[in-house]
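#random but structural
TW: two for the price of one
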Amino acid sequence: MFDRYNREINYLRISVTDRCNFRCIYCMPEEGVPHKQQSEILSFDEITEIVKVGAQLGITKIRLTGGEPLVQKNIDELVRKISEIPGISEITMTTNGVFLPKMAHKLKQAGLNRVNISLDTLNPEKFKQITRLGNLEDVLHGIDAAIEANLKPVKINFVRIPGVNKEDEKSIREFCDAKNLKLRFIRQMNLKTGEFYPVEGGAGGICAICNRLRLTADGDIVSCLHSSRRFNIRKLGIQEAFKLAVEKKPKCGVGTKSHEFFNIGG
């Protein structure tokens, strides 16, 4: 699939839930978010069918996100279903890592290729401050589990939070070098104003080469992280939703009030 600006669209990021076991200060309100009815959330069978159609149209890469994707029960079953779809060459996941000690080997066996793990500091007190509910040791154990399960290259996502974790970058670099982890620095973004920046160590945030669409947990295909354009697969049908999302994908995002990071997957 090619959009109006001749960008090949082959990457679909799927938010499987907007629930999370953390309340990170740059992502989710401290009180959490209202839970959607189960009927509003796409089933694994629906997601699988969407990916099948997407693969026929040219989607080759899938990333599972949230919220926190590993709070979704039996997520390894979804990975297995997607891995069996012809044309899908890579399945990745963005996670906070807490549940990886229990899930990493299951996910690898199911067909997950690799993971990105969020880690914004190695200071336990600051980690608690940033995540509100998290325990640093749980994430460190998750990183080790991902390495042991060969979910490689394991990538670390470090969000630069102004006034909070600038001094933590050196220790994170040393930690990643010691464990042979790929490190990505992400500047804090503003969805409402469309303020965003290229990802240091990754390809995100560069509009000219953007190759991705996003699928929300309740069935909207979103053309751009910083756009309000949404195309619901239940209302429009899967093929039409994909078609419109690609046709209407903007050259560059300008801001949105239709979603937050916790329900779009970043």
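TW: number two ↓
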Amino acid sequence: MKEFRTTIQPQQSKNKLSYHTPALFLGSCFTENIGNKMQDLKFPVLVNPFGVLYNPVSVRQSLEIILDKRNFNENDLGFFNEQWFSFYHDTEFSNTDKQECLNNINTRLNAARGQFENANYLIITFGTAWVYEYLKTEKVVSNCHKIPAKEFTRYKLGVEDIFVQWAKLLNRIEDYNPDLKVIFTVSPVRHWKDGAVQNQLSKSTLILAIHQLKKIFDNVEYFPAYEIMMDDLRDYRFYADDMLHPSSVAVEYIWQFFKDTYLEKETNEISKEVQKIILAENHRPLNPNTEKHKKFLLSLKDQKEKLTNKYPFLHF
């Protein structure tokens, strides 16, 4: 029988992620879809220490801050709408208290620095080639923090812009950590406010730039999350209610594809054992005070101990 869809087959990567390969995830909300799944399964990963980042300039700036080993101070913050904020960070870091804002930023930054020093993998998702530049500083921002649009200029990066900036950064990263592998993806989330044509032009720009980098850097790979969503899952049943974001079913499908590409069989088997415990742990009983539930908790604790004795690198 003819199959009524175009399927994309996973291409096994020679570079494998495991419970012994720390990874740093940076980029759009799709980064969090995959990164959070790995985090839940107790892989040694850190996800978006600057919050969600959408464009290649913001991701590059974040990595440069990590490499420069600098912390943020009061001069790096702005104040608007009764909130202290950083133009390099998502709104999740904004706070009415200046010191708390700084503490949150620097705590995550120090964690990112430690993770990056030990990382085997850097996994990056670009969401859009469009950027916002703050007129007062003439710098691209990661988030506009609801400041009026008239204070920014908006423009689209070109393929060459992204390629040149990232080639310089990848050379610097290679000097810093020669063994680091970089996996690029493009977010399958469409930026519909730009319109269908401009969204496609933006995504195409990102894909072209990444493939130019892939040609000259041996440590760079491309994972086809965008293509899986656009071609393999070309049906609105795989979208959330907004018809733009992937549904949970689609995210799970792409995650399975990612596992088939980057996880060895043994690593996959360990992750399945961890997942059973996580699912049991997330179970909400009707009555937590029953003897049955108390026995269940003891059994769960015993399962965790057995698994961590078998695999000492796991941390629940």
